[in-house]
Specification:
The complex is a heterodimer of chains A (93) and B (152). Chain A contains two helices and six strands. With 93 residues, chain A is α+β, with helices and mostly antiparallel strands. Chain A has a five-stranded mixed β-sheet with strand order 2-1-5-3-4, with helices on one face. Chain B is of the alpha/beta class and 152 residues long. Classes of the chains: A alpha+beta (93), B alpha/beta (152). Chain A: This is MoaD/ThiS family protein.
Chain lengths: 93, 152
């Protein structure tokens, strides 16, 4: 099952500079584990110690933020496209 | 990662639009991007963003708008040359939060302060590189237009 994953600039150190890579998995969680098996360390940038999606990383299944779907449990299908974008955020403190 | 020419050059028009956005959204933080052709380092296309946090102390691009923005830049072969936001009660210097969420090592992080905190008058406009948690301030050069390339 091939899923295209679009990688943001800041994480391309894990993908030898590739803007997009392919992965597989029935859920987003499985996909991230699959990616990590070939791009060691990338999962840690996306998922925290408790196994939840990091607050300031946005992950989209096709056009939808997975937070509005089932988060890491979001089901994936062949031909889906996943986009990872770090939040653009900050503040005064 | 090398700092390529520690200077931000932008047009008076873009400078004024960023300041106007910060002023309009005060007391909330304003935020946005100026996109430019990939690799050129030249800020050209002003894209004000909605602060989804609608807060005087925090900003975050709306997640749907963020996806739209990055797709659009991808299609046009652009990158975020400037990422700007305002501070409404503190100086125009990156906070700890700004530094920890700075994920575009190639961008100029522009901060505008809508507070007069140091007697130098309101609307301080300063630019920084933020790479691996390290902040480097750079000069800001304001020009009428970019050489003979831009005619508006």
């Amino acid at each position: 099952m091939a899923i295209e994953v679009r990688i943001p600039t800041i994480l391309r150190t894990y993908t030898d500079g590739a803007k997009a890579v392919e992965g597989g998995g029935a859920t987003l969680d499985e996909l991230f584990k699959d990616l990590d098996s070939r791009h060691a360390g990338i999962r840690e940038r996306l998922v925290d110690e408790s196994g939840a999606l990091r607050r300031f990383v946005n992950v989209y299944l096709n056009d939808e933020d997975v937070r509005f779907l089932d988060g890491l449990a979001t089901a994936l299908g062949d031909g889906d496209s996943v986009t990872i974008l770090p939040a653009v955020a900050g503040g005064m403190v | 990662m090398p700092i390529l020419g520690a200077m931000l050059t932008l047009t008076q028009d873009l400078h004024d639009r960023i300041v106007a956005h910060a002023r309009a959204d005060h007391p909330d933080e304003a935020c946005g991007v100026v996109a430019g052709p990939a690799g050129s380092g030249r800020p050209e296309r002003f894209v004000p963003m909605l602060n989804a946090a609608r807060s005087p102390t925090f900003y975050e691009f709306d997640s749907g708008d963020l996806l739209k923005l990055y797709r659009e830049m991808d299609d046009r072969d652009e990158e975020p040359v400037i990422i700007y936001h305002s501070h409404t009660a503190t100086e125009a210097y990156p906070s700890r939060t700004d530094i920890s969420y700075a994920n575009e090592p190639g961008a100029h992080y522009v901060l505008v302060s809508t507070a007069d905190t140091d007697g130098s008058g309101p609307f301080q406009f300063r630019s920084f590189r933020i790479v691996d948690g390290e902040v480097t301030e750079e000069e800001v050069e304001i020009v009428a237009a970019y050489g003979n390339v831009t005619t508006q």
